[in-house]
Structure formats: structure tokens, C-alpha cells
Amino acid sequence: xxxxxxxxxxxxxxxxxxxxxxxxxxxxxxxxxxxxxxxxxxxxxxxxxxxxxxxxxxxxxxxxxxxxxxxxxxxxxxxxxxxxxxxxxxxxxxxxxxxxxxxxxxxxxxxxxxxxxxxxxxxxxxxxxxxxxxxxxxxxxxxxxxxxxxxxxxxxxxxxxxxxxxxxxxxxxxxxxxxxxxxxxxxxxxxxxxxxxxxxxxxxxxxxxxxxxxxxxxxxxxxxxxxxxxxxxxxxxxxxxxxxxxxxxxxxxxxxxxxxxxxxxxxxxxxxxxxxxxxxxxxxxxxxxxxxxxxxxxxxxxxxxxxxxxxxxxxxxxxxxxxxxxxxxxxxxxxxxxxxxxxxxxxxxxxxxxxxxxxxxxxxxxxxxxxxxxxxxxxxx
Length: 381
Ligand code: MG
What we know:
The protein is an alpha/beta fold. Helices cover 30% and strands 29% of the residues. The protein contains 12 helices and 19 strands.
């Protein structure tokens, strides 16, 4: 039976004072929610369900472009109610385990996720990541400050893992009790709880200071910077439109090709593949393969980006140059940048599209074809 991953992103972001809510804000160029989801991607025999707040559908769609996810479930007034609704939404899939994770902890490591699942597989009803307390704690009692012994205290993190049927029952039975996390309900229900070591870097990103620290941590994980270049040419043929950088442009010619012949996205795909040393677009998407006949080229770019992610890396900058006399690119440049940013899940400030002519010289000057060059910069662990 599968393991369900329930990612809770239903917060309204009031604590951080952010608009849009913090889970949709960019963390080193990628929405925090997208990072949290991608921390769980690619696990064998598991599926991801996201809980969002009412009215956050558009923000969710923008943050998850290109990810293969079921429709989000919509949360309630409190975190507890949101999780309960999420669990009810998962009930039909009958998962064996569920991992409940806050979108505000996007830095969770594969090791921690593995540990939580392993504790459940070893027979626990519930598994919780815990950390000791390093700081001295003080509390006020009868108007006086006193030091609290910290040896017995632990900080709880997510993902918290549960036997699915047990935590669903606990949520249903104790819906009237207000708790801050799911483990509190597991305690009320008398479940057998195992502890696994938490990790300091699995921090909860709440305020502006946390954002800065999380970005520094993410950045430190990506120590190697690489660049790749790409180049592509397609021939003009009779037609009434062409595709360039993911944008459909009405024109009195078309571009010839096996796919949609988007030379801009082909050059950029090759640049990204070049940066990670993973062959070229023709190797990943052979023109002899009928699956790619007429294919939209954003699929090629998306695939290259997924290969970067699979290595734990990040694309940090892309620069595309289109070389042709016509069509004129300037009017479409912003739309092209926005579309590439959308496909890659990056902020548009990290995407550049430029255009030039060859002063009437060569095959581009004679209008026989269109040329594209690209450079991509990638950071890898
Ligand atoms: Mg091509």
C-alpha cells in the first residue's frame, strides 16, 4: 500500500505579514511550497496531496506549474481542521502511512523523510522528528522569571508520520480539542509514538529573518556553478505562425521541424543539458520517435529542468538570443521571458531573451531560417 504525503500549505501568512502568503513566496528563486513538494518527489510507492487555503487556487497553480499532482484539497479555519480535511480527502486511496508536512519547512532532507518512514515500517503508529533545546529557557511565574530545565524538553518538527487509519481516527475522535500539531492528537489517542532525530536545517520559515537564513542554507548546499551553451536552427517554410520561446507568434512563415520547431526553447534545453553534462536534446527526444512529432517544446525544457532537480541542483539564470530579420522579437520578449520563467518555475528576473539581426547577411539575413543561442547557469550540490 502506498504512503501518502500530505503537505499543509493552508496558512494565510498573517504571521509573516506577507502577501501573497509566505508558502507562495520565492525562496532562492522558487516558491517555498514548490520546494517543499519537490523534497518528497520521486519516492517509490508514494503520492503527494497538497492542502491550500480557501481562495489560493491561482497562487497554487502558479507555484506548481508542470508538477504532476492531484487537485489541491482546500483547508479550513485552523491547521487542525485543514489536516483533518486532507486526511478525509486521502481516505479513498487507503494509504498505509501518511506523512504530514508543513510547507513552511522546505529544507527537509531525504534522510529525515527516510527515518520517519523507517520508524513506521518498524511498527510504530507514529513517528516524530525531535531536537533537543540548546538555549536556556526562561518562563514567568507569579511575576518572577525562572529558568526552565531544558533536559526534558524537545522541539518537534515535521514531517510527522502516522499509520493512516490511526491518525484519521484520532482527528475524527478529537476534532473538538484544539492542538498545535498532529502528534498531540496521536498522544490523546494513545498511539505508540517513536522519535527520530530532527535536523536543525529543517527550520520553519516564518519571518523575514528565516527567509534570509533559509536562502543562505539553500545556497550553501549548491557549491558548484556550471554553465552550458545551446544552439539551434530551423528553416522557414510557408505557414501562418511559429513558436518561439514558448510563445505562439502570428507570422507569414512557419518553422520546419519534427516538434513545434521552437528553436529558442531547443537552444535553451541544450544549454541546460550542457550545464549538467547530460547529452543533448536529440539524444533525449530523438526525431525518429513519433511521440515527439508536433510536440510542444516546453516539454523538452521541463524535462531538462527535472534532470537538474534530480541532481539536487537549481537553474539560476538563462539567456537566450534569437537571430533573425523577421518576425520582430521585441513585442514578444516579455511574454517569452514570462513563459520560460513559468516552465522552469523561476523568477522572471532570472530569464533573459534578446534578439539581433545579421544585417542581411547569411541564411538568417536572407530569411531562409532562424537561429537561436542560449546560455544556462546551473548550481549543483
Ligand atoms: Mg531544434
